[in-house]
Amino acid sequence: NNPYYKTRMCQAFQQGLCQKGAYCNYAHGPDEMPPAPRRYKTELCKHFMEGKCGYGEHCSYAHSMEEIQQHAAANVASSPFQMQQSNTLTGQSLLQPQSSITPSVSLLESVRTDGSTRRNASGHGHHHKGKKLRTDSNAPAAVKICLDDL
């Protein structure tokens, strides 16, 4: 049970050199890859903003607001339903209706405002160590979770 099984394209296969066939741990086509996580490209890469992201085009964080908007539009278009969850603390929506798909970076930051911390259980993320979560008892349940885990 390799958690990374078929999560990347096989470089040898792309060059016509892979001899492992069905036994290869790497994907031989996009149809073998798992679906991208819903948090992909939903927040800015702090390393890129500091000028030192080593992941380049393979980074799972956005390197511009335009990139966030492009992926938000793709996610909304492929979503089987629309969800409008009001954030009573900020008056903003957690997921905007299809006509307004510009994500709010301030909303992403407003979810992490007190002293509690949480690390993503999947071990993903070079950004998420020590993220702050809101634990205000008046906040709706959807606001209490880290948006990175959606």
From TrEMBL:
A zinc finger (C3H1-type) spans 4-31, 39-66. PANTHER family: CCCH ZINC FINGER/TIS11-RELATED. Pfam families: zf-CCCH. InterPro entries: ZFP36-like, Znf_CCCH, Znf_CCCH_sf. It comes from Perkinsus marinus (strain ATCC 50983 / TXsc). This is C3H1-type domain-containing protein. GO terms for molecular function: mRNA binding; zinc ion binding. Residues 109-137 are annotated as: Disordered. Keywords: Metal-binding, Repeat, Zinc, Zinc-finger. The keyword Repeat applies. Residues 4-31, 39-66 form the C3H1-type domain.
